[in-house]
User: Which sequence fits this backbone?
């Protein structure tokens, strides 16, 4: 088949600059490409012609059958700590970077496949992906994006017409993922573990040029890069926490340098507030439980610091090693305060508050404790503060089995609000509504949509859920079901699987 002409204006810096850090590789051919999803708004952002991509030729491209002009497909090398244990070689076992494009904002974005067949990094895996988990990446990624949370996004999902073998046979698919880059903590670990300082340095220079170009050439740039990643991750994790998102598999290979959320495998949104919530079937010790996420992020960043240390030391000259360790430790320690500040900023917005006051952290903590003891739905609890701000407390109180304690807290909150005297109740309510979503991709709806798509080829539930999670802050009478929690019994038994 002739390659389609110039669908993408690729400019492939990774392939060009990082020879030796990847393996050039081609996607597998599949039987019957069929476009299941095309992200038109994202296509527009990337200067792509969505109409051209929405054709059978586009389906062939997104299934991997027809490599578009200008692409230089490659599998990236990376390592990673998985559940605390180090695997020196992971890498793109079922993914390929096709290339990079520059979007309408001038930002460079990776276009990459997931599920496009075996690569030299596949180890025992089949290199494939199933329809359900790839559509899951679409729903959660679009939901996160609409919530204002940095994330990789899905450009397309193409069915392959082939089956993949998991616990059962499942229809296969290829996801096309867009990311600010696919550089991970584990990418640095790969070269550090091999003591390949030359490649480590090239990688660090590349990361700086791509994500923090203002640091290029500065004498302290490797430590400064670490600081930037710490800052981005602190803000990101705080955002996760403020929407009740549980990533589920925060291995170092699933943590980006860009600060985007990546790899929506066994992730889930919390319903009733429970800091210990874990949904992933393989997370038996709760390492990646909701409340552990900030600690784990900091632990992962310590692994990044270790990987960067040889560069920091090498640049510091004689007797620099201890000094480098001390400075890196200081940068790592800053995570905690940055995280707490970002969390509180978000909570303040969710409380409808504008200026900062000393009591705000306590107010937010006590609110969360109330939600926890009375097992209140996290999303609805926050959201209905808007109704209370507008004068209707009944809807909020209705969430509590024992409303007396809630009433007392609401009184405290209202007094705090009253200290910002120039804000009308309507404006306050509006503020809360902009900070706390009405709709999140609730697990039971996600599962139902994926089931219909995967088992019955029925995309209608997926399409309508996608519309809803793309407008999470807007109340829409036709979407009321998406705002409802699952029955508690369903949530209690809910498990997510890594069998992606
Ligand atoms: P993940 O848990 O999805 O982040 O993947 C961890 C590692 O396993 C990465 O190196 C993946 O490329 C690899 N991997 C996951 N699933 C497969 C598969 N089906 N075939 C080959 N490699 C895989
Ligand atoms: Mg991964």
Assistant:
């Amino acid at each position: 088949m002739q390659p389609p002409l110039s669908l993408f204006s690729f400019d492939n810096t990774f392939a060009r600059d990082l020879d030796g850090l990847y393996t050039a590789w081609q996607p597998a051919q599949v039987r019957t490409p069929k476009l299941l999803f095309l992200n038109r708004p994202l296509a527009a952002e990337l200067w792509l012609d969505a109409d051209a991509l929405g054709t059978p030729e586009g389906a062939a491209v997104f299934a991997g059958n027809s490599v578009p002009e200008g692409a230089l497909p490659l599998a990236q090398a990376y390592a990673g700590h998985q559940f605390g244990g180090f695997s020196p070689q992971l890498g793109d076992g079922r993914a390929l970077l096709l290339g990079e494009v520059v979007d309408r904002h001038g930002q460079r974005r990776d276009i990459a496949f997931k599920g496009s067949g075996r690569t030299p990094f596949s180890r025992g895996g089949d290199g494939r992906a199933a329809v359900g988990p790839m559509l899951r990446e679409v729903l959660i990624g679009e939901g996160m994006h609409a919530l204002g949370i940095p994330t990789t996004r899905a450009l397309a999902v193409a069915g392959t017409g082939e089956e993949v073998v998991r616990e059962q046979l499942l229809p296969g698919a290829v996801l096309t993922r867009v990311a600010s880059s696919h550089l991970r903590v584990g990418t640095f670990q790969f070269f550090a573990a091999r003591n390949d300082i030359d490649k480590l340095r090239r990688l660090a220079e590349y990361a700086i040029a791509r994500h923090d170009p203002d640091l290029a050439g500065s004498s302290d740039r490797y430590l400064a890069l670490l600081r930037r990643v710490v800052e981005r991750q602190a803000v990101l994790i705080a955002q996760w926490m403020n929407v009740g998102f549980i990533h589920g598999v925060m291995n170092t290979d699933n943590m980006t340098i860009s600060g985007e959320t990546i790899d929506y495998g066994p992730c889930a949104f919390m319903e009733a507030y429970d800091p210990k919530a874990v949904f992933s079937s393989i997370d038996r010790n709760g390492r990646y439980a909701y409340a552990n996420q900030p600690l784990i992020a900091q632990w992962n960043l310590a692994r990044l610091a270790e990987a960067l240390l040889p560069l920091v030391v090498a640049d510091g000259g004689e007797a620099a090693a201890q000094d480098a360790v001390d400075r890196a430790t200081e940068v790592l320690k800053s995570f905690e305060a940055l995280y707490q500040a970002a969390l509180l900023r978000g909570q303040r917005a969710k409380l409808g508050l504008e200026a900062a006051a000393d009591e705000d952290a306590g107010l937010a903590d006590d609110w969360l404790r109330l939600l926890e003891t009375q097992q209140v739905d996290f999303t609805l609890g926050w959201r209905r503060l808007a109704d209370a701000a507008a004068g209707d407390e009944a809807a909020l109180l209705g969430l509590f089995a024992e409303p007396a304690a809630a009433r007392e807290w609401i009184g405290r909150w209202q007094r705090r609000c009253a200290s910002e005297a120039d804000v009308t109740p309507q404006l306050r309510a509006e503020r809360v509504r902009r900070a706390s979503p009405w709709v999140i991709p609730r697990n039971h709806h996600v599962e139902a949509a994926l089931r219909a798509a995967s088992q019955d080829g029925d995309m209608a539930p997926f399409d309508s859920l996608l519309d809803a999670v793309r407008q999470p802050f807007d109340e829409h009478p036709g979407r009321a079901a998406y705002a409802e929690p699952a029955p508690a019994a369903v949530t209690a038994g809910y498990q997510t699987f890594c069998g992606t």
